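We were asked to recover a plausible sequence for a given structure. The inputs and outputs are reproduced exactly as logged, with field labels preserved.

PROBLEM: sequence recovery
POSITIONS: 372
GIVEN STRUCTURE:
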């Protein structure tokens, strides 16, 4: 196979050099060009036609968000946003995800060898995932409502599965009486590339009577807080970044903080979040594998597992362990995935009971929670 062709857009020569050096260590990736600002990048991107673009947010002449918006409208390509480790940077990056960015990563910041090696592993994996992502032209403004969501047949047909723009706000599902009687259940969800939009679609449909939800979304430190806050403003259930000791209670979803693993433990009557540092597992931190293994041990047959879009196999073996412990598991189907990797591997290993389109996963979760 030909190498993945990457184009880097960043106003910092140091960052451009660091990203080029990191990506050049992998034989499956080649950096075909760089640019210091969107105006310089525009002509080069049209000429070179890269497979993936890494894009800085804060740049002179034109900011990254404005350029991303134009790019997704006129020349859509998989874009990874490269952002600073600040709250403002995280909030801007969430806007980039809404505009159609495939993924986000921190700017190279560590001067220590271990930190740079981890950053290299994550960046290379994200580029490879982005190269497989489904990206389509952004829907014209005339087919969106005041919040930028698709409206009418033209809107639905035009954008299909574009991340961040592909699905209108979901209606909150009615909680059946059985759901209220089964709030001892725990829903565990894993996601990676494309997961920010997929999680929105699922969580917006979940009623406040839902059992506790624990989530791993592959995302850098700081960004998970902005992501959780964004979802909390859109959902009927509470969504928050997990803190160590947070109680797992009905109507609440806990998202693993970036750069930390999330597990479930039961020190007494109640189950709580166990947030810990630790090495990369399945090349990730947080890792779906770590969360799902803890759910298999602690929750057993009272768990419902969900594997959403993402590249690789993080969590697939642990999902099988959940099934062997009595859990019921759901995987997102290929048609609605941005990258059909993690669900595919979970299905291949035999850890999945049901495969569903993204828009039907919330309903399937509720049905599984009402069983037994």
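RECOVERED SEQUENCE:
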């Amino acid at each position: 196979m030909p190498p993945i062709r990457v184009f880097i857009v960043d106003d910092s020569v140091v960052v451009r050099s660091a990203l080029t050096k990191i990506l050049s260590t992998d034989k499956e990736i080649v950096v075909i060009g760089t640019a210091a600002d969107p105006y310089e990048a525009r002509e080069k991107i049209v000429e070179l036609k890269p497979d993936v673009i890494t894009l800085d947010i804060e740049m002179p002449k034109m900011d990254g968000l404005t350029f991303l918006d134009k790019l997704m409208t006129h020349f859509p390509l998989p874009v990874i946003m490269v952002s600073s480790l600040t709250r403002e940077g995280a909030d801007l990056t969430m806007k980039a995800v809404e505009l159609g960015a495939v993924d986000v990563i921190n700017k190279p910041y560590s001067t220590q060898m271990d930190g740079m090696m981890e950053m290299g592993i994550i960046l290379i994996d994200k580029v490879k995932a982005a190269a497989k992502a489904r990206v389509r032209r952004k829907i014209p403004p005339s087919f969106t409502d005041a919040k930028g969501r698709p409206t009418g047949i033209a809107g639905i047909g035009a954008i299909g599965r574009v991340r961040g723009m592909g699905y209108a706000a979901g209606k909150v599902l009615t909680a059946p009486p059985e759901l209220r009687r089964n709030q001892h259940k725990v829903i565990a969800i894993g996601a990676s590339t494309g997961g920010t939009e997929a999680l929105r679609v699922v969580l917006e449909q979940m009623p406040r009577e839902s059992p506790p939800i624990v989530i791993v979304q592959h995302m850098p430190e700081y960004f998970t807080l902005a992501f959780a806050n964004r979802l909390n403003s859109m959902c009927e259930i509470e969504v928050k970044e997990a803190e160590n000791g947070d109680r797992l209670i009905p109507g609440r979803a806990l998202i693993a903080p970036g750069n930390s693993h999330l597990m479930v433990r039961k020190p007494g009557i109640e189950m709580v979040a166990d947030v810990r540092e630790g090495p990369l597992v399945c090349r990730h931190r947080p890792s779906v594998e770590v969360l799902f293994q803890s759910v298999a041990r602690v929750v057993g047959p009272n768990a419902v597992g969900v594997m959403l879009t993402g590249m690789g196999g993080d969590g697939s073996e642990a999902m099988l362990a959940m099934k062997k412990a009595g859990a019921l598991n759901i995987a997102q189907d290929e048609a609605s995935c941005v990258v059909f990797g993690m669900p595919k591997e979970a299905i291949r290993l035999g850890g999945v009971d049901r495969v569903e389109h993204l828009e039907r996963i919330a309903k399937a979760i509720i049905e599984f929670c009402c069983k037994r």
